[in-house]
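User: Fold both of these, please.

Assistant: Here is the first one.
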Amino acid sequence: MFLAGCYIYGMVLNVRADSLSERMAELHLRTINNPSIVIDKKKYTLTLYSDSIEVKEYRAVFGKGNQDKQSADEFSTPAGEYEICEIDTSHIYHKFFRLNYPNISDLRVALRMGLISRQDYESMSLQTYYSDSISQSSFKWRKIGIHGIGQLNFLFKNLPFVFNWTDGSIAISNEEIDELYGVIQKGTKVTIY
């Protein structure tokens, strides 16, 4: 009974949420210019901006760990400045916007902490310099990005509470990732706090 009540409450919250096009109309925006995303792990939000205008806030969930991701074997979500470097429209979690994680800042921290060798640091640093991201075959860290929920979308999007379940990525509902897909592109800036 309690679980059914929770789902009904979650569905009511989702029905009341404005779509991206409704929010844009309220703000008198015809297009999203210079899109960027700010993710706040403490507030469980992902916010879309057009230039400096806050357009829409989404409820987001993160990795299972509570600290910022620093190594491959952690299931935490990293913090820092990233860019979307790849867009996969046929992913197990509906759509996947891969972030350029680890970037040079992450590599420096990993080297200082002794999590990677000097040789690995130099090799991966060169890759980040010459391409958008490090090739998956050359490092052991998981791909980190923003994705939908996939087949369990109805179940997870209607939970009225937060349940962090990813391996370090940021998850929003399939409908919300579809909205973002219409306005973001490779190179979109993503800041995670």
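And the second sequence with its predicted structure:
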Amino acid sequence: MNAITLWRPRRMLSLGESLDRLFDEALVAPLGMWREVPRVDMYREDGNLVVKAGVPGISAEELEVTVKDNILTISGETKAEEEVEEENYIRRERGYGSFCRSVALPAEAEGEKTEASFEDGVLRLTIPVAEEPREESIKIPVKAS
């Protein structure tokens, strides 16, 4: 007898999200090399691009934020607590080690003017957005040879 499975529609993932998920779930996690990376929210607000990233357990001085070729990179390292001996653990789920997260910014983002703030484990980046370029049609004469 066949079982009936209830289909629950989900939000369609972009190709990048699908590849990230495939890499995280199929390749990295089974090998025991899983590290938490900052999850980001990106939205427009008052003519700026706002990026928020959750980075708990790390101080602002330990974060490195760069923008190069419209790629935003957030990196740092979370350190393991040394006060508990390994054999005393019942469960250990928090990841430790270095992390790096890169996301593409829209072409009109002015990364060199980024302002950053950090509060309660949340990194907030405010990136000005240039006025969108006007699309103009330019007629180019073609000469017959």
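The first strand starts at residue 40 and ends at 45.
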